[in-house]
Amino acid sequence: MVAGGLSVLFCGINPGLMSAATGHHFARPGNRFWPVLHLSGFTPRQLLPSEQEELLDYGLGITNVVARASARADELTDEEYREGGRILVSKVERLRPSWLAVVGVTAYRTAFGERKARIGPQERTIGETRIWALPNPSGLNAHWTLQTMAEEFARLREASRIP
């Protein structure tokens, strides 16, 4: 779900099995993406995965690094991440969002060969598009709480100048 001229293009790692079955990003009930997106101020209410098209109304889009569905992201190979990174660069060059927000710093590191990348804004750009690595909202990423993730997402919202 992408379009040209977005303020932020969020990029998940890959579809989970539920997302692949429903066609909705971050569809597993325990995933914290949708609550965090709302708590951080990107959306005025918490959207359901089935309402993902509404992101476009807020200047937001969503895609993945790797297209292949899996039960867990650790089932993906480094080559899948690197190839996904190349495809993502082409997509960003075509769509030119202000920000690419990769949801999962490990995915960002592998896809872009940035082994020392940390959560937050990155030095690398894709044309005029700035990049921000965000924490993975999966329930498996327990050391990030809902609140601390919302704070990091809000930093991106403020940097992207979304009211």
TrEMBL record:
Keywords: DNA damage, DNA repair, Hydrolase. One of its GO terms (molecular function) is uracil DNA N-glycosylase activity. This is Mismatch-specific DNA-glycosylase. InterPro entries: MUG/TDG (IPR015637), Uracil-DNA_glycosylase-like (IPR005122), Uracil-DNA_glycosylase-like_sf (IPR036895). Pfam families: UDG (PF03167). It comes from the Bacteria. GO terms for biological process: base-excision repair, AP site formation. Residues 1-160 form the Uracil-DNA glycosylase-like domain.
